[in-house]
Write a structure and sequence with these properties.
Its cofactor is Zn(2+). Among the domains are: about 25-65, Rubrerythrin, domain 2 (Single Sheet), CATH 2.20.28; about 80-110. It is built from three helices and four strands. It has helices at about 20-25, 85-90, 95-110, and strands spanning about 30-35, 40-45, 55, 65. A hairpin with a 6-residue loop joins strand 3 and strand 4.
């Protein structure tokens, strides 16, 4: 089995020299910790002059995460799925439905 030379191991061909001198220095950064309701801990780096958000979506579970471990944000509840009949029942009472049904049946029977 032939062994290749390890000269370029870990680097892409044509990527150029590694290190800071050619690319420039990184902007000054600050590390901020976020915790979600499932106690997942996430550390993110932000530029010092950047505005750090109050909440961040947890990359592990998707819940909102806050900067205070003891006071994590609560996920906004999602509304339950409603069928067409569910929406109708929000707008009309059972009695209104009976009246409309009787009117429609009367029209179909031709007795109105």
């Amino acid at each position: 089995m032939a062994r290749g030379s390890g000269n370029i191991r870990g680097a892409r061909i044509g990527s150029g020299p590694l290190g800071e001198p050619e690319r420039g220095d990184l902007a000054p950064r600050t590390t901020v910790s976020f915790w979600c309701g499932k106690d997942h801990h996430t550390q993110l780096s932000f530029a010092v002059e950047a505005v750090v958000p109050e909440t961040w979506d947890c990359p592990r579970c998707g819940l909102p995460a806050g900067r205070d471990r003891d006071d994590v944000p609560v996920a906004e509840g999602t509304s339950r799925y409603l069928t067409h009949m569910g929406f109708v029942r929000q707008r009309r009472s059972q009695e209104d439905g009976e009246i409309l049904l009787n009117e429609a049946l009367a029209k179909l029977r031709g007795t109105s």
